[in-house]
Every structure is written in C-alpha cells, then in structure tokens.
C-alpha cells in the first residue's frame, strides 16, 4: 500500500511540474506560437482591410490622428522620395513594440515583416496637411510581403517577396 501511495504522490508532483512548465511557456511554446501566428495573420488581414476602408486621399492630419493616434514616426526620406510631399509618416501596427528595424524608415522593413516582428506598415505622404499617397506593407496569408499603394487615387497591389 505504501508503494502505491508513493507512486501517486510522485505522479501528482509530475503533473504539477508539467502544468507549471506549460503555463510559464518553458515548454509547449511551439504549440502556442502556431496559434498566435494564425491569430496574427487574421489580425493583419483585418487591419489591412480596415486601413483600406478608412484611409483616403485628401484625409487631413487631424483626421488621421483621430483614426490611428499620434504614435507615428515622422520619416526622414533623405531626398529619396521625390514626390513633392511636405512630410511623410509611418505607422507600425501590430508588431512587437520592442522591435527596432535595421532598415531606414522610408524603406519597407522586409526582414521585420517576414520574421513577424513587424505587423503592418502604413506609410503616408502629406501635402498641405492632406494625404496625397499611402502604402501598406504586410505579410499575406501566402507568407509573402504584400504591398498596397494608393498614390493620388491610383491603386496598385503587388507581392514583393
């Protein structure tokens, strides 16, 4: 009888240890990562559709701040963007808040998007405090980087990688 109770106690302790290890993500994280990735893909898809529906050419800076807040980067394009805009902004949505891209702000962060550290990049060009162009870069369900652009009302979509 003592051996049976001893085995039950050891079994109970093993169960408790396994529960703690799974709960703290020490083990089992590959399963959670897969669930998170599919959730993130859905979040990315929903966010991209939301942007396409809400952001329009001619929207003002104040209207944009009302929609997406003031957590944007004022982009220094180093003269690369010869489009006549006064200013450029970039919103980084759904990504890892601690992630710092190695690419310049006016470039698409391909490494971050492919790794999942960057979710959706929304780039905006301003002239006289109104949107003249915007682009959206994101990882599609096909695991390729998608690029949506609306420049002066001309919409194009392509796959980068």
Tag the structure with descriptive keywords:
161 residues; alpha+beta; six-stranded antiparallel beta sheet; 6 strands; 25% strand
Task: Report on the architecture of this protein.
- The protein is of the alpha+beta class.
- The chain has one domain (2-159).
- 39% of the residues lie in helices and 25% in strands.
- It has 4 helices and 6 strands; from the N terminus they run αααββαββββ.
- It has helices at residues 2-23, 29-54, 61-68, 110-115, and strands at residues 73-74, 87-93, 120-127, 130-139, 145-151, 154-159.
- The protein starts with a helix and ends with a strand.
Q: Please tell me the total number of domains.
A: 1
The fraction of residues assigned to DSSP E strands is: 15-25%
Task: Using the alpha-carbon principal axes, give the shape.
Answer: elongated
Largest sheet: 6 strands, antiparallel
Figure out the total of helices: 4
Instruction: Report the structural category.
Output: alpha+beta
Which value, in Å, is the CA radius of gyration?
A: 23 Å
Head-to-tail CA distance between termini: 65 Å
Summarize the structure.
The chain has 161 residues and is an alpha+beta fold. The chain contains four helices and six strands. It has a six-stranded antiparallel beta sheet.
């Amino acid at each position: 009888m003592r051996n049976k109770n001893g085995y039950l106690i050891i079994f109970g302790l093993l169960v408790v240890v396994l529960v703690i290890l799974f709960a703290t993500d020490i083990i089992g994280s590959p399963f959670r990562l897969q669930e998170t990735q599919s959730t993130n893909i859905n979040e990315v898809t929903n966010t991209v559709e939301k942007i396409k529906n809400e952001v329009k050419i001619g929207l003002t800076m104040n209207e944009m701040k009302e929609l997406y807040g003031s957590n944007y980067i004022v982009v220094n394009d180093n003269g690369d963007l010869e489009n006549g805009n006064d200013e450029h902004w970039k919103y980084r949505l759904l990504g890892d808040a601690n992630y710092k891209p190695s690419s310049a702000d006016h470039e698409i962060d391909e490494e971050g998007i492919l790794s999942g550290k960057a979710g959706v990049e929304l780039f905006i060009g301003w002239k006289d405090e109104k949107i003249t162009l915007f682009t959206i870069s994101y990882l599609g369900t096909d695991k390729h980087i998608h690029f949506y652009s609306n420049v002066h009302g001309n919409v194009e979509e392509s796959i980068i990688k």
